[in-house]
Amino acid sequence: MSSVATLPASTASVRIRISKDDILLRTGLVLLIGLLLLAVVFPLYTLLSKSFEDRDGEFVGLQNFREYFETPALFTSITNSLGVAISVALIVLVLAFVYAYALTRTKMPFRGLFRGIALIPILAPSLLAAISLIYWFGNQGVLKSWLFGASIYGPIGVIMASCFWVFPHALMILITALSTADARLYEAAEALRTPKWRVFWTVTLPGAKYGILSTGFIVFTLVITDFGVPKVIGGRFNVLATDVYKQVVGQQNFEMGAVVSLVLLLPALVAFIADRWVQRKQVAMLSARAVPFQPKSDPLRDRLLFVFCSIIAFIFIAMLAMAAYASFVTFWPYNLSLTLNNYDFDLMDGGGWEAYYNSIRLAIYCAVFGSGLIFLGSYLVEKARGVTWLRTILHLGAMLPLAVPGLVLGIAYIFFFNHPDNPLGFLYGTMGILVICTIVHFYTVSHLTCLTALKQLDPEFEAVSLSLKTPVWRTFRKVSLPVCLPSLLDVASYLFLNAMTTVSAVVFLYSPETMLASVAVLNMDDAGDIAPAAAMALMIVYTSAIFRMFHSLLVRTLNRRTQVWRQK
Amino acid sequence: MSESKQTYLSIENLTKHFGEFVAVRELSLEIYDGEFICFLGPSGCGKTTLLRAIAGLDPQSSGSITQAGKNISNLPPAERDFGIVFQSYALFPNLTVFQNIAYGLENQRLPKAEIRKRVTDLLELVGMPEQTAKYPAQLSGGEQQRVALSRALATSPGLLLLDEPLSALDARVRAALRQEIRALHDRLGVTTILVTHDQEEALSMADRIVVMNHGRIEQVGTPEEIYSTPASPFVADFIGVMNFMYGEISSSGTVRIGNNSIECETVNIPEGRKVRLTVRPEDILCRADSASDQSVSANSFSVKVESLEFLGSFCRLILSGPEGFGKLKADLSTQQVHDLKVIPDVTLTAEFPSRNLRIFPESS
Amino acid sequence: MKKFINNISQLSRGILGLAVGLMLAIPASAETLTVYTAVEAEDLKRYAAAFNEDHPDIKIRWVRDSTGIVTAKLLAEKNNPRADIIWGLAATSLMLLQSEGMLQPYAPKGLGKLDSKFRDSANPPSWTGMDAWIAAVCVNTVEAKRYNLPTPTSWMDLTDPVYKGHLVMPNPNSSGTGFLDVSSWLQIFGERGGWQFMDNLHKNIAWYTHSGSKPCKQAARGETPIGISFAFRGAKSKAAGAPLEIVLPKEGVGWDMEATAIMKGTKKLSAAQTLADWSITKKANILYNKGYAVVAYPGVAKPVKYFPAGIQEAMIDNDFEFAAVNRRRILKEWQKRYDAKSEAK
Ligand SMILES: Nc1ncnc2c1ncn2[C@@H]1O[C@H](COP(=O)(O)OP(=O)(O)O)[C@@H](O)[C@H]1O
Ligand SMILES: [Mg+2]
């Protein structure tokens, strides 16, 4: 047996010499943390400090807040914002839940088609719904009489349009929530002869509980921070988000803008924390892996749900179709002959065709650089050895953007990048700042997607590579990247689509040379050119749709190339 | 092997803690050149932790490691000399068998032909030639583990680390692979550390076994030594099947259990000390019960058969002994069971030969 | 697979190069002037093209927005100005900038030929006028008939409850047209009477728009029967086929000048002066006349199609001094009274 020799025992903790790989990974970590500091933390800090300053940059304490909270209009804005956000959350929850239930738990025909139709709004800027509603229910609307004298300009229009554009976001979460059912629970219930409605209340609903809560929070945040819809169709109906827009864009009153956006950050932050909490619960629940649920057919139920889904799908198509039709009409409602004049963007306010090309450029840059950067970041968070605290910091930094509404981010960027002493000021007004802002805005979801993909890799790949004396970057290039490529393409596609349609952050940052299509829609509507606005919104839809097709084609090709090793 | 006992790897005072929790405690160990050594112990006892410290993957908190005369305590894993195989195989799913095995070789900038030759040789060695173009997902578990082994051996490391390499396989494949791995080792002579919680695996494969418990070494020895002369009750219990009886030293050479005395070597344990007495089931000798017998030989007692369990080549009897002995297990060959007409409730005479009894003082 | 990865890495290298190129390609030429303007977008191309016929070496980079926004933007950038010259912004706004000391006085060549109303009276002037744009009410005749609305003839008519919910006007905080309306009402009806009038008008307003042309465009589409906007917009929409009647209320209509001014501290002074010189030429004024009935260069103005007759007589005797000096106070007061839109009764 080995004897315990009385060596000069090195009781001091052992420090492993840092290898080249570690240096590489740690440098990467530090660089990315630095980038996130510059692109998220510093701007937000500047925003915060700006809200305590007056126009000349003097510190005035809570003066701005006091002034803001004394504005008589404020209270109405808060109630309006909360009212709309809660109503939309409730309506969308019910509709999207039934829709998702039909897609995941029944044998209803055409489920794939219905799913595709419900995802249409993701391809369009949120303004499209508002524009379309004006053509349907506006004062010259085809179906104006259906509102019984009520005006579409106001809460009704805002709620309807918001429901349309947030629907797919809610649907996707609920589909996930409902797809993870445990068949054994249903079999047990059936064996006990539980009536169907009771099974629904005691098994189905509780099972999707966290998905439902999460959806509620996300819809709430999306709606309360969106100003595109209320701006186009809100009429005299003020909400917090349009207040910010008016303060900053309308009056260039940045200090007040900072104050309102901080107020807006609050509900978003609460929703974010609540959602994280819910997510954690959900993970715990899912880990008890179970037998997947196989839906059975039930003619009556399936037929009822088919009717329901058809109605929703019809409404979605009607929204899109009306905007498409109106974009070709010469002069609504007096001259309904068709024309391409509305697509002659160069004659309108809003940057012309150049805006459209800029949007495509932005989308490509975001897809390429964004997915690369985000994948790298998640790789470092997941795979760097040691330095847990650095990895945690990077991960937290990557989670932060989810809590920051686009418009708050946009305003924070104005303050930070337009500051005369900022050496990065050269970015202001360039395509660069739009790319950075958009990537940051959609960072978190992409980060989580990459992280999930990376977590599915065997954690010992890196240990094996080390034992084979292979540098990390080689394993990254030869294994991690190729295996995660499908997820990476998903992220690229997600970034592309969002860059095409986003308005909320970039509207504060574009310059004449970097006008974007989505902003052009807003500005054209602002100038009263609603038909060209519809036309531009449709150009975005067409482009996004073509891109989606291209993406699924690419994924299919790729799967064919790689299916060999995925196949058992 | 015992002739050239040259130390290849030596671990001194190694401690590893995760926060407050100490996973490996002041552990010292010498591993000889070319030997096949097993770290054996229950799950969570720190085997993997020790292995990863040796590899440098999760460095120790304190203590030092010397490999081939060189202190490697502070070296990053890439600068150490080892190959490693995990329970999960950790094969790269998107690379073929060939690419997986060549992975480490390509990095050494060897000529293509040489790499090809080496990979083919290795595959032949593990008995899977002509499978080079397949992807891991197309292989069975056993085949995957063979590929993983080839990959670890491809770069001819001085030390092979195997962390539960057979646990994910079914019993039959496992048994076959045990032999193969051992044969491979004997052929290549590479110093090998195998981590396992399966005593059978350790007993059948190892030159020496390191039995671990709670981050400490309980005993180091050949399978034979570990089995027949366990150094602690823990080892005695963990390896094989063991009967425990509780009593106290009544005088030198005698232990009192209940009302009975039993003779055995008491190795200078003072009188009155509480002790644990151990005996293997196969070491209990059973005979037909007869009054005369008990006077003839010492350490013989009348026991009653409670139940018996047929285990193929032998039967395991559950006996209730005299007061204080508790329930005992005794193994009899099927032939003996037949001869003695053993059925439940039959009374037998059981002898506990002194040379097969081991005694452990209870910590007070 | 390997080839595929190679292709991807080549592609990304290409895109990287492209992107860096693009990001660095911020126009840095000394020949590029950053011009802030509130002129209608569809006119900007013509203006730039005509100017470049004479000065091909000077490129124009337009920054266009509504009057209120351009003004606010210029004020916000006071310490870090980004504009070289302003071409086509309300004179009241320029007077405000002048009082902030932000303008570079300059007498463009040929200044003497301008109508003396169309220039800053100081010498050298801080700004020179281009044209006048004049408030008007756009009435959609089809919609008015549908809702039985009488055609208004005066501002006071618009406070009649029959118009409730049928009026749209621009928000003076963002729109120059909105501001000239408000300042003209304060001049026509006096300070107290003016606010009184607006209080009543507010009850009839369906919503306030961000831009000055939107009310007329909405009236043109029948989205609202009546839009308070400006005459030029009305004429254009009518020309496009909208059933519009352009009404000039009988109390008189407010108006403002579009004018040109050089920013103090511009690094491209000589190019800016070249543009200022060109902006008051006869050629430029002929251009302005395409959309504006009244221009600074005497004898150029030709009638614009569908422009309401008698507009010269309807223009009030505008006190620009009053409007400029009180601009901030008026806007703040307006915001306090009417911006809480949803308290509509
Ligand atoms: N990264 C870690 N953090 C905290 N505790 C750990 C960590 N890794 C292992 N442990 C703990 O150390 C003990 C020994 O683990 P391990 O060496 O994996 O055991 P085994 O002998 O089964 O291989 C276990 O109790 C385990 O929970
Ligand atoms: Mg282990």
Structure summary:
Chain B is an alpha+beta fold.
Layout of helices and strands, plus pairs?
The complex is a heterotrimer of chains A (568), B (364) and C (345).
Chain A: H1 20-50, H2 63-70, H3 72-105, H4 111-118, H5 127-137, H6 155-179, H7 183-191, H8 196-207, H9 209-224, H10 228-233, H11 240-250, H12 254-286, H13 299-326, E1 329-331, E2 335-338, H14 352-383, H15 388-399, H16 406-417, H17 431-441, H18 443-455, H19 461-467, H20 472-501, H21 517-526, H22 530-566
Antiparallel strand pairs in A: 1-2
Chain B: E1 7-18, E2 21-32, E3 36-40, H1 47-55, E4 62-67, E5 70-71, E6 83-85, H2 97-106, H3 112-125, H4 141-154, E7 159-163, H5 171-188, E8 191-196, H6 199-205, E9 208-213, E10 216-221, H7 223-228, H8 233-238, E11 243-251, E12 254-257, E13 260-263, E14 274-279, E15 285-288, H9 291-296, E16 300-310, E17 314-320, E18 327-333, H10 334-340, E19 347-351, E20 358-361
Parallel strand pairs in B: 3-8, 3-9, 6-7, 7-8
Antiparallel strand pairs in B: 1-2, 1-4, 4-5, 9-10, 11-12, 11-14, 12-13, 14-20, 15-19, 16-17, 16-19, 17-18
Helix pairs in contact in B: 2-3, 2-4, 3-4
Chain C: H1 2-24, E1 32-37, H2 41-54, E2 59-64, H3 67-76, E3 85-90, H4 91-99, E4 103-104, E5 128-140, H5 141-146, E6 167-170, H6 176-204, E7 205-209, H7 214-220, E8 226-230, H8 231-239, E9 244-247, E10 255-263, H9 269-279, H10 282-288, E11 294-295, H11 311-314, H12 320-338
Parallel strand pairs in C: 1-2, 1-3, 6-7, 6-8
Antiparallel strand pairs in C: 3-10, 4-10, 5-8, 5-9, 5-10, 5-11
The structure holds adenosine-5'-diphosphate and magnesium ion.
Adenosine-5'-diphosphate (ADP) binds at residues 18, 21, 23, 41, 43-49 of chain B.
Structure description:
The complex is a heterotrimer of chains A (568), B (364) and C (345). Chain A is mainly alpha-helical. Chain A has a domain at 52-284 and 307-326: MetI-like fold, CATH 1.10.3720.10. Helices cover 70% and strands 1% of the residues of chain A. Helices cover 27% and strands 34% of the residues of chain B. Chain B contains 10 helices and 20 strands. Chain B has helices spanning 47-55, 97-106, 112-125, 141-154, 171-188, 199-205, 223-228, 233-238, 291-296, 334-340; strands spanning 7-18, 21-32, 36-40, 62-67, 70-71, 83-85, 159-163, 191-196, 208-213, 216-221, 243-251, 254-257, 260-263, 274-279, 285-288, 300-310, 314-320, 327-333, 347-351, 358-361. In chain B, the strands form 4 sheets. In chain B, strands 6-7-8-3-9-10 form a 6-stranded mixed β-sheet, with helices on both faces. Chain B has a 5-stranded antiparallel β-sheet with strand order 13-12-11-14-20. A 5-stranded antiparallel β-sheet of chain B has the order 15-19-16-17-18. In chain B, helix 2 (97-106) packs across helix 3 and helix 2 runs parallel beside helix 4 (141-154). The mean pLDDT of chain B is 91. Helix content of chain C is 43%, strand content 18%. Chain C contains 12 helices and 11 strands. In chain C, strands 1, 2, 3, 4, 5, 6, 7, 8, 9, 10 and 11 form an 11-stranded mixed β-sheet that branches. Mean pLDDT of chain C is 86; it is low at 1-12, 14-30 and 341-345. Bound molecules: adenosine-5'-diphosphate and magnesium ion.
